[in-house]
């Protein structure tokens, strides 16, 4: 009698898994489902989806490889990890494209179905690595996943092509067993997703269950792994991506201001998911307009703000270039406008599905004339909610366009998010003008559209159609207080300085930058912005575990900056600024504070490697010791 195989149980603190295959193999869905179950189990998670820009690259080629990386642990983590511990490769191209990233001794689970001479030659392999011993440094499980999945769904009379498509669900079932993941959520998901096609629904469920059963019964895997839940503050959590968090932050901001949220947008990778989500939220009073181009999108958003709504537009770098003139118009008209730039690799079309941080200078200075505006940057996928909410608050309170910077890594990545207490979020007062606010030359009460709040320097915001509040609007320079067209040199200088000073008033609402320097002995400060937060934090933890001292600080407000930033920068012997660009924040800091900044630049379309950063930080700290 043959008894079911029972694998040994091994507890781990953390695991990094990468699912990789052809862009049609469903790797994003597979990774997302594994992530959802892992989040429901209670692990801390961080993800890194990575997919081709082409809609359908040639099958079996290196440019067509799509991957999804998940880091999950029983403690607080801040990055999706560098080197995967496990690589699930669905074809030769996926194996070759990702093998160099796998740690030595890592696990490879590979589908052997496509390892033909033709497919190997297509990616430049003369020999089959599954047979020539070249994978000796790894633990390799070569399985015919396609054949196993096809057999599992044979009863459903699918075409060969449709049957083979279930291999991703077979792999998901196998990995769910191997890492002791819950299965109920995935079974429910498949039932709902394919409810209109019962055959496909039942086939996918059968393949998933077959993969799970294969892990239980085969003797291929001698060890099964367990990663316990991570301790987290009490509360209700859900998995959330950066784009979804941004959408929720915008909805909350508009709600707290008592305004209708109007999104004028044109689809562009990787920002489109914000448009997709907001278009589903008519029940929350959201109005979305998919425009014919980027210029129309931002124009509609600004028009909505003129009409008394909260105008928002979303885009990525190339779209920002097209929106620049209308953003300048928002500076001149001094109306609220929230501009979300989900950055990607450039210039021009660049690498649309890859991440970068190279739009900072564009956000700060990419308009004609003196046109200052606030710039914020989210540090994590979940922080996109708070940063979007903050952008709404500043835009409404100070009557200004605000640019929020996210990036492809944050937009598509996911983390556990503790649902906020919405009642505890302070309201945002739009303070619409309701009547005359000044006197004309004849002594009669009049409405002065550029009469300002003495604290914020925000001008009056009048909803069109309100009796007695008629006023001029447009891009030509305004006369102070009256808003009439003015070419007077002194008035232009006054208005230019006023717009600058209004930006400076925002500093009062910005908290001082906090420095994480546990020992108080650090001589090196690592300063980050945006999505470098994760790699910087993780690298610093490792540096400290190695017995060295390093201080950390991170900027959300990039323009204006916290009031104490200059003093902080000058209190350390060396300031290192890691960025996914060629040193844009470093340039700004040097110009504003006259301090030496050590640039740490990476522009590879990927997040900064925490392992590389750890090594380089150790070297910088040791070099200071040697100098003394």
TrEMBL record:
Gene3D superfamilies per record: 3.40.50.920, 3.40.50.970, Pyruvate-ferredoxin oxidoreductase, PFOR, domain III
Pfam families tied to this protein: POR, POR_N
GO MF annotation terms: magnesium ion binding; oxidoreductase activity, acting on the aldehyde or oxo group of donors
GO biological process: response to oxidative stress
CDD domains for the chain: TPP_PYR_PFOR_IOR-alpha_like
Domain Pyruvate flavodoxin/ferredoxin oxidoreductase pyrimidine binding, first and last residues per copy: 255-478
Keywords: Oxidoreductase
Location of the Pyruvate/ketoisovalerate oxidoreductase catalytic domain: 24-212
Name of this protein: 2-oxoglutarate ferredoxin oxidoreductase subunit alpha
């Amino acid at each position: 009698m043959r008894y079911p195989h029972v694998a040994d149980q091994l507890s781990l603190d953390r695991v990094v898994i990468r699912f990789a295959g052809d862009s049609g193999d469903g790797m994003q869905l597979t990774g997302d489902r594994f992530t959802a179950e892992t989040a429901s189990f209670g692990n801390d998670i961080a993800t890194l989806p990575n997919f081709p820009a082409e809609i359908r690259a040639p099958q079996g080629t290196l440019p067509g490889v799509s991957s999804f990386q998940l880091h999950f642990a029983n403690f607080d983590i801040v990055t999706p990890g560098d080197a995967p511990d496990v690589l699930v490769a669905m074809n030769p191209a996926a194996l070759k494209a990702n093998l160099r990233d796998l740690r030595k001794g890592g696990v490879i689970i590979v589908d052997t179905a496509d390892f033909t001479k033709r497919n190997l030659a297509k990616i430049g392999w003369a020999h089959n690595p599954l047979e020539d011993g070249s994978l000796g440094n790894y633990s390799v499980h070569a399985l015919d996943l396609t054949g196993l999945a096809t057999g599992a769904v044979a009863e459903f009379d699918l075409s060969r092509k449709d049957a083979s498509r279930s291999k991703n669900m077979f792999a998901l079932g196998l990995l769910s067993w191997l890492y002791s993941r819950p299965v109920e959520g995935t079974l429910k998901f498949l039932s709902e997703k394919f409810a209109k096609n019962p055959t496909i629904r039942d086939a996918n469920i059968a393949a998933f269950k077959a993969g799970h059963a294969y892990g239980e019964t085969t003797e291929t895997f001698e060890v099964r792994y367990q990663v316990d839940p991570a301790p987290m503050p009490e509360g209700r959590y859900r998995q959330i991506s950066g784009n979804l968090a941004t959408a929720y932050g915008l909805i909350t901001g508009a709600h707290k201001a008592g305004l209708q949220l109007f999104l004028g947008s044109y689809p562009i990778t990787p920002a489109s998911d914000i448009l997709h989500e907001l278009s589903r939220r008519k029940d929350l009073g959201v109005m979305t307009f998919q425009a014919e181009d980027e210029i129309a999108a931002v124009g509609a958003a600004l028009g909505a703000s003129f009409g008394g709504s909260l105008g928002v537009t979303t885009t990525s770098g190339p779209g920002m270039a097209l929106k620049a003139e209308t953003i300048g118009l928002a500076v001149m008209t001094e109306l609220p406008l929230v501009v979300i730039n989900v950055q990607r690799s450039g210039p021009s079309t660049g690498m649309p599905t890859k991440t970068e941080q190279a739009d900072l200078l564009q956000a700060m200075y990419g308009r004609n004339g003196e046109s200052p505006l606030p710039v914020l940057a989210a540090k994590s996928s979940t922080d996109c909610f708070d940063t979007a909410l903050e952008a709404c608050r500043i835009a409404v309170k100070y009557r200004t366009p605000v640019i929020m910077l996210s990036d492809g890594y944050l937009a598509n990545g996911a983390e556990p998010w503790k649902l906020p207490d919405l009642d505890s979020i302070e309201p945002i007062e739009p303070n619409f003008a309701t009547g005359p606010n000044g006197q004309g030359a004849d002594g009669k009460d009049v409405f002065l559209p550029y009469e300002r709040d003495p604290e914020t320097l925000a001008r009056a915001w009048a909803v069109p159609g309100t009796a007695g509040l008629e006023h001029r609007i447009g891009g030509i320079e305004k006369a102070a207080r009256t808003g009439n067209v003015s070419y007077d040199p002194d008035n232009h200088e006054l208005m230019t300085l006023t717009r600058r000073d209004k930006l400076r008033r925002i500093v009062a609402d910005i908290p001082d930058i906090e420095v994480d320097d546990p020992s108080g002995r650090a001589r090196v400060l690592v300063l980050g912005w945006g999505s470098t937060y994760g790699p910087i934090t993780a690298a610093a933890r490792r540096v400290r575990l190695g017995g060295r001292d390093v201080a950390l600080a991170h900027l959300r407000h990039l323009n204006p900056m916290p009031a104490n930033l200059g003093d902080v920068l000058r209190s350390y012997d060396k300031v290192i600024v890691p960025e996914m660009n060629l040193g844009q924040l470093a340039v700004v800091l040097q110009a504003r504070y006259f301090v030496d900044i050590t640039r740490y630049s990476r522009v590879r379309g990927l997040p900064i490697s925490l392992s590389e950063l750890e090594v380089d930080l150790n070297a910088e700290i040791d070099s200071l010791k040697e100098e003394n």
